[in-house]
Amino acid sequence: xxxxxxxxxxxxxxSCESAITFLDGEKGILRYRGYPIEQLAEQATFLEVxxxxxxxxxxxxxxxxxxxxxICDQSILDEDVRKIVEAFPKxxxxxxxxxxxxxxxxxxxxxxxxxxxxxxxxxxxxxxxxKFPVLVAWTMRKKQGLPLDYGDCNLxxxxxxxxxxxxxxxxxxxxxxxxxxxxxxxxxxxxxxxxNCSTSTVRIAGSSHAGLFASLSAGISALWGPLHGGANxxxxxxxEAIKADGGDTKKYMAKAxxxxxxxxxxxxxxxxxxxxxxxxxxxxxAADEVLNDLGxxxxxxxxxxxxxxxxxxxxxxxDRKLYPxxxxxxxxxxRAMGIPVEMFTVMFALGRLPGWIAQxxxxxxxxxxxxxxxxxxxGKTTRDFVDIDKR
Length: 391
Ligand code: CMC
What we know:
Layout: E1 21-24, E2 29-32, E3 35-36, H1 37-43, H2 46-55, H3 61-73, H4 79-87, H5 94-108, H6 118-144, H7 157-166, H8 177-190, H9 197-206, H10 212-224, H11 231-244, H12 249-257, H13 278-294, H14 299-312, H15 315-319, H16 327-337, H17 344-365
Antiparallel strand pairs: 1-2, 2-3
Helix pairs in contact: 1-8, 2-17, 3-6, 5-6, 5-10, 6-7, 6-17, 8-13, 8-16, 8-17, 9-10, 9-17, 10-17, 11-14, 11-16, 13-16
Bound molecules: carboxymethyl coenzyme *A.
């Protein structure tokens, strides 16, 4: 008989062997397929990184060209999807909308549900990489009352994303290199992070051989929470609240340390990084650059920096090794780009998409067994049924 050990939050439980992402939390190292995150963020395109995550190596020119074309060919949605988007109330949270739409794609693409061969996997992968950015753009445009348009997939993947999100009716689309470059960087920084909550969800849902889109939809739901991807929205709301409260960072530091107060300093702390989050370093620098380049003065950037300084010098945070994480500064950049706060976690999902796909594909190719943790039962022992009138 095997002995069951309980590990709440799976803090010390490995769920798989993986060749995708390497992470050293003590040293603050993050590499995708061996490529350091710093090099990728500076030099790669998001589509190249997606290819590397999913297939193992950075693509050659020909491989990238084919990949891009295959994605482009799959980027049109069934017109009935438009009706679904239109049926959502404008007030709906975009994460609820995008997870439903991703799930709805299984209905419009039944051939992508039962994927067993590598060839079928490839078809499902390019489909979702083509359609998901359109869903993201439509989710935002629906909220803003803008027409649900397509972009131009002859453009770069990220530039097209920008066009689909921001193109105004009756106006010539003019790209913005600063925004496109910053978006490219942010998406790369979010592209994978080994066995985090949403990725584990994708792998475990997919381990029952549920289709790719259904597994991704499960992952999107897991990402939504404020302890995970939802933190980027929560950070901005927290910084706004501090600003409205006269910029009193000390008050919020005290709240975060108070064990009777459920408030946490959002964008701080990480399950694995106990020294610094390498993504946060890159994002902090990018926030300065982007705001400067766009000529945006956002007072909450100063509040964020002040909060960071205080936390880095406070024994509570130092002792618990709590540092700013990837979400601490990303929202400030998204806002400077003109992306609404409620869309921030959807942007995270867009970035994480290739990581989820890569992890799902690896899990299926490795023929991993169905994910099925055990438990230790602590409920009532056996007792007899009692008629309802005698209870
Ligand atoms: N503010 C105040 N105290 C904190 C914070 C925080 N942000 N994070 C952790 N702590 C304290 C926690 O109360 C505990 O204290 P004690 O030992 O006295 O009980 C100690 O630090 C360890 O925390 P934990 O909750 O056991 O750590 P965890 O590994 O289970 O949680 C975390 C990690 C990221 C969920 C957590 O740090 C947190 O809630 N942070 C705020 C939300 C956030 O920014 N999430 C984004 C994470 S990075 C991107 C992503 O994954 O999507």
